Structure formats: C-alpha cells, structure tokens
Amino acid sequence: MPPTPISIVIRTLNSAATFGRVLEALNQRPDDQIIVVDSGSTDTTLELAHAAGACIVPIERSRFTYGRALNLGFEAARHPWVLSLSSHTVPTSYNFLDTYRQAVDRFPATVSASVGPIIGEFDAAIPGGITLFEGDDLRMGFGFGAGNPNALYRRIAWESRRFDEEIGGGEDLQWYLDALKSGETVAAVHAARVYYISRQSIRAFYRKGRVDYRAASRLIQAHRPTLPGLFIRAAKLMLYLPMGKVDWYGAKGSLAHCLGSYMEARSSAHSRKSGDFNRSDQ
Hints:
Blueprint: E1 6-12, H1 16-26, E2 33-38, H2 45-51, E3 55-58, H3 66-75, E4 81-86, E5 89-91, H4 96-106, E6 111-115, E7 118-119, E8 130-133, E9 150-154, H5 155-160, H6 171-181, E10 185-189, E11 194-196, H7 202-219, H8 227-243, H9 248-280
Parallel strand pairs: 1-2, 1-4, 2-3, 6-10, 7-11
Antiparallel strand pairs: 4-9, 5-11, 6-9, 8-10
C-alpha cells in the first residue's frame, strides 16, 4: 500500500524568519500538497512558498480569523487527510509526516482528528504512542500543548463540521469537543512533535495568552495560573538563559504569554464575583 498523502495547510503573515525552517523540516513526499494561506506578507514568505511549490491562498487581513483561514486552506486540499501547521512550529524530526502516516494506518474508523505536542526547543522529550480521547475525556485538556498549530484532520469530517469563523481563538478545541459529542474520537500522536519558535512581539504573546486562556476556560476546566506560578516561570527562564536552554525571544514570549493568561484569569474571576454580587443584591 502506498504511503498516505497529506495536504499541509500553513497560515502565514511575514513569517520568513521561521517559515523556511518549517518547510525544510517537513521532508514531504512527492504526492504531499502544501497550501499556504497568507494574509498579506510583505517579506520573503511568498517567495519561500513559491519555491516549495505551494498552492497560495490569499486572505484579506481585515477578514482574518484562525477558523476562516483554515477553512479556506482546507477547501484547497485534495487529500483525505489535512494537516494544520503554523509557520512557526518546526517539526522536531525528519520523519514527522511519516509519523502521522503510520498513525493514520493504526487509527480506528472513529478518529476524525489527531494532534501532536507543541513544545519549546529545549523541553524534555515526550514518549511516543497514541492516546485516544472519547466522550468527555477532554474536559481537562490534552495535558500538553496541542491544537491547530499541529493537528491532522480527516477531511470528510471537516466537510461536515467546518471551523467556527467568528470566534477569536479556540476554534480547534471547539471542533474537538463537537466531534466527541458526535461520538467521534480524537487521537494524540505523541511522537509527532513540533518546536514552537515564534518571533512575535511581547504584546502579541501577551494578547495570545489572554485569548488562549479565555478560549480554554470557556470550553474546558482550564488550569488557572497563579502569581507564584508566574514568578516561578520567570525564575526558571532566568536560569535557562545563561545555560543556553532558551533565547531572549523564547524567554520574553513565554513570560508574556503566562502574564496574559494570568491577567485574563484574574479578569474572569473578577467578572464572576461581580456578577454573583449583583445577582445576590437583586
């Protein structure tokens, strides 16, 4: 049986600093397809995409949402399995795509999507294997970074359940929960790992931390970040810097994301308390 071909959808916006590393690490086979959904890059991102033979799908920046960009990319996919990958998540090994292919061959027919871990470049390795999530298994989340920056979907399942284009974040988690409610299964492929090497600004990481926490807390029992936990993270990052285990980009981004999550958690808790007080006063 020939290897399962995969369509790979990558969202880009001035991503040249990391996009080239993603393309180089993919090690795709001739039958695989690369689709780039670009929202107005002005650097060399599109040159890299053209050189890789990618199908380029433009999206206006004013219309961009994660869900809408992915839906456009999936529409252009020609294979039964579609991989959603970010332009700043670099596969950790040359057999990344083959790891997903081998997993597909082992999936039961109920699997409609699978995810791989999203880790920092210096995080400890995660053991291999496949975990199947069913029913309410996702009420506490995956237990490691996972979602549309590194997720493989059965295209026919997406056709019946497109990504929500209106929510600002969490379109992946919403999709998984809806799939589980429909009796489908979501798999975690632990060996299909990617490094997270985003070079966004501190402000962007902070906003992402708030959006990520807001989306997670709306859908699952999200872990609530604490102030002591924030200080512990900062101390670890300061320790890792001189050891070379993290660079300034990674340290600042990680801390800004944690701070955003913490501030969103505080804001949410305050809103709930105010709501409870107002209701009790009526």
